Amino acid sequence: MKSFKTISYLFAATLLVSGLSSCDKADYPQRFRATEGVPTVHSVRYADKDTYIEQAFMEEVVCILGENLKSVHEVLFNDQQAILNTSYITDNTLLVQVPKTMAKVETDKIYLVTAKSDTVTYNFRVLPPAPRVKSMSFEYAADGQEVTITGSYFYQKAGAALVVEFPNATVENIPDADITLETIKVKVPAGAQPGRVKVTTASGTGSSEFMFRDNRGLLFDFDGTNGLYTANKGWHAAPIVDGGVSGQCLQLNGSRQEFTADGGDWHDGDAHFEYWAGNWQDPETYGTWDGRRLIDIVDFSNFGSMVLKFEIKIDPSTPWTGCPMQIIFSGVQHVSNGNADVKDIYGVTLPGCNNTYFNNASISLPRYMWRPWAATGSFDTNGEWITVTFPISDFTSFFDGSMATGTLTPDCFSNLELFFAGGTSSEGTPCSPIVYVDNIRAVPAR
């Protein structure tokens, strides 16, 4: 798809010029004057070069060539009205941007309407841009499981069926009922492999921003296969249980503590997952498996363009209706799994185990405050696994929900905690959710 930013800027710049039409004729003798009769259309070309076309993408700027085009009062592509600027209309040319809204009824025609409602048609097809594939409801879905792909410009029509391509496997013949402009429901095909998912329409092919079954940057899989397995690397011991995405997973609040609506209580014990790097050594080496700094597993040097992802499952019988989940990274300069004042092999004097760093206002360590129930009052996943995504650039809150004043740096990513606390008194209702978490990973946003 070609770029027409320059043309768009010209459109904006000439709004002032078009406004001059309200001035007196004597002052502006060359102002636009509509003509009588009906227009004739000979052809359509791109606005920025002499290439004649029979179709264009939405939002592209095209030039209609013909005669008596000053008689045109309205232009429609299919059933969508375009915006006209008389500064770009002459007797023989009419410059116009194809509307960015999908047609309700596709006729593959341009309609040029005069002030007296006389209408001239011209055969011309409007295509959406190539599809954009943004997310998948469950990135670790098994073969045969249904997922929802979210994005934009998904469509199919006779002779141009939409196709979804997983690495090593393709889905075709998708029913129209399973496709909207922004979603596609599809079953993961047999033999699908990790990698990017592609969607192809008549407009082209779009590749996903995410990686299907992404095993890059895997921090915790709770199986110890590709990521860390840790039931307790700190003072609290949220259990690891069967029933995960592909093995075991983390269970938060299996004892069903009641969370206050405002998150005023700090819920620890089995409702608190904490991973503090270290193995109570002196000097601290961080070991070769559990106990490692997360920055030894994943490169966080460009954390601002990374996202934290994991799978989550909540049964509707135990919904989450109040109290935020705090998702917080920290460095070994903030907390470590061992004694205080011990040095590590990098020369850092460690603070040891403590439960003060995360609500210490003088540090004000930024974190993500997750409130998925806020929009609707209640959140669950219908007992199914889904994938959730948190841009690290959005880790901006402090413990009480205010804006953090501290700053994240690459050495702030050695530890990770998930716990329930904080927020404001106006949020949520009391609840006792059981939250399952799996495959915690930090990966590039695109």
Please provide a written account of the structure.
The longest helix has 9 residues, at 5-13. This protein has 446 residues and is mainly β. 3% of the residues lie in helices and 29% in strands. The radius of gyration is 29 Å and the shape is elongated. The protein starts with a helix and ends with a strand. The chain has helices spanning 5-13, 15-19, and strands at 40-46, 55-57, 61-67, 72-77, 80-81, 93-97, 109-114, 119-123, 125-127, 132-136, 146-152, 163-166, 169-171, 183-187, 198-201, 204-207, 218-220, 240-242, 248-252, 273-275, 306-313, 325-330, 368-370, 386-391, 415-420, 435-444. Residues 1-29 have low confidence and may be disordered. The strands form seven sheets. Strands 17, 18, 19, 21, 24 and 26 form a six-stranded antiparallel beta sheet that branches. It has a four-stranded antiparallel beta sheet with strand order 5-4-7-8, with no helix packed on it. The protein has a four-stranded antiparallel beta sheet with strand order 13-12-15-16, with no helix packed on it.
